[in-house]
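cache lookup: miss for this entity combination. No prior model stored, computing from scratch. Input as submitted by user K.M.:
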Amino acid sequence: MTATDAAGSVRPPVPPSVAFVRAGESAPQPAPSSVAGPWAWIRTNLFTGPLNTALTILLVLLAFWTVPPIIRFLFIDAVWSGADRASCIYTAERTAVGACWAFVRDRAAFFTYGFYPIAERWRVDVFFVLLAIGVVWLLNLRAPRRDLAAIYAFAVLPIISFIFLSGFPALGLPTVPTNLWGGIMVSIVVSAVGIVISLPLGILLALGRRSTMPAAKLVSVIFIEFVRGVPLITVLFMASVMLPLFVPDYLQPDKLLRALIGIALFASAYMAEVVRAGLQALPKGQYEGAMSLGLSWGQMMRLIILPQALKITIPNIVNTYIGLFKDTTLVVIVGIFDFLKAIEAARIDPQWAAPTVSATGYAYAAVFYFICCYAMSAYARSVEARLAVADKR
Amino acid sequence: MTATAETRRDEPPKVSPWNDPRVRSVLFQALLVAAVVFMIYEAITNASENLQRQRIATGLGFWDNVAGFGISQSMIHYSEVTSTYGRVFWVGLINTLLVAIVGIVLATFLGFAVGIARLSKNILVACIARWYVELIRNLPLLLQLLFWYNAVLKALPSVRDSAALPLGSFLNNRGLFMPKPVTGPTFDLVIVTFLAGLALAIGFRMWARKRQERTGQQAPVGRVTLGLLFVPSTLTFLLLGNPLTFDAPVAGRFNISGGMVLQPEFLALLFGLVLYTAAFIAEVVRAGILAVSRGQTEAASALGLRPNQTTKLVIVPQALRVIIPPLTSQYLNLTKNSSLAVFVGYPDLANVFTGTVLNQTGQAIEVVGITMMVYLTLSLGTSMIMNWYNGRNALVER
């Protein structure tokens, strides 16, 4: 388009004497229904071509076949209150029994605390609150003094939590042995310990793997590749049955501690690879710039490299934590009474032996894990989006 | 004066040994090695002491002892009375490999389908695929396995009220009963014909490729391959008078006889592993396809390639380059996750060997060590094969 054309678009008004020339602009017509409006949307998104039409019809039929029974099971036919199995079994008047939510309501405390003494359960609640504060403070990128948050989450919180959960008789908190711990509480303790230990250990291993010192590199590579090459179950078996053989009698770790060691070692190896990817993603100029400023290796890592590398790895670190959180369900194998084990124990308990109790218990666990993991992955995605904006600038 | 300054410039600056990087590095490594050696030494002395006190045997002597427990599924001969622990190891290993290989094949197909569906123009298809991936990836695999096993397969009707499926199969809480193919004595000839067809097809493809590179002429490779594979073998099959028959399961009052059965443990594990891994593979595939820039498609159509040629010759080869490395780690994950068989009672390596054999013999170090070596070998083997394949597909840069 040329300048004259653009100028010509503001024409002088045509003299009204010529009857067949319109004086003003006519009102724009609505777009044809084939390109705008709900029908066009449906056509372009659902019925483009025979294959998509067939797929749409098939999926709609499938939805009609599967969704109503699921909704009936979960809500319409569900039993919401009751004291024992009698409320959830088939009777003459109740021929359709859906999800037995009465079972979950009755056992909710057991699912959360396991066998933790009822009088001491407030301590677990305090732990949950302290943990929530740490998580929000550390993860909210706009929160003030996030350096203090890191100290709180990685040093203060573990000590306070240990005092509260395990007990400290001098402070009037009676000792609760770890074999009474159970349910959601143990799942969270195990994953939190895995998270708190795996990040520093993973950073160390990643630095070791990228080090120029052959011995440090060899030790790191062997550890990382070995742990990543075997299933978590075998690592847990190792921590549970081999570890007691390797330490002297007076150092025998208790069952929970063994599982924690296994989980922490396993998570560290995976974290090391995530951190290593972040270190490799930094341009060489950052290293060279730091060295040319005369920084020592420690200063270079602490002030230049790690802050940048960890920032770009946050999404992957969170994804590793999601994996770790899901993997903590495997500690059942070494006799830890975690959330899933609590559900397994409750669903085969004769007090609640009813046909739909198993499915209800699993549905409850699914909701819990889905909310936790989905929240974490949504957080990872939001950080990723934020970093992408920062990179574009 | 100047002379001394010049000589000083040639010498390296004097630093105290404590600040010399080389001295520090040697010192640090010496400390590290000493710590590792000390730990290993402590572990060995403690272990020998503990084992002696608990009167646990050491060494692989248990390998030839009779195991004396039953295994519900075995591909090789196994007897509860005479078979040894060594036999248990092989049974478990074969079962692990069986579920891993079948799982990898199925998960690849499902994962590619879901990954492509996520990019579909059909909003319904894309949406369902997306929610499948979100749901499956955010739930622990163990929860899914327990759900399939306890809430679905174990809740199926009993043998008496088996659900009849097409092709003479039955489904009940003891598993999926299917017709068993019985091969006649001449069936081997059909296989030989098929293999010969396969060899000819590969030869034809190589010849066609060479000819295209030389002259630019294309040969109908797809149709010829299909024809070579199936026409001779089908003809042989029909000429030999149908040497393949099926032994269908027959539903009795209390049991189902004949046919072959896929046990609920195997089905639950396979189902869980396939659905779980497929969700991860779908994300890998989606990322791989998105990584091929739009300009590639446009350039291909500018060159006059048809859409299916664009997909086959331009998009897929480039997407595969991005897909293969993470796909490898998903295959490895599936193999390692097959050890969750312990929780549903499928007799894999981790269940019968690391579980039962360890319980019976108490030889933790040997049993756990052997199991770890097996998984390590599988992992390293798979990544070597995939690295070789990846190397063939990798971008050749200047």
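stored under new cache key. The first helix of chain B runs from residue 2 to 10.
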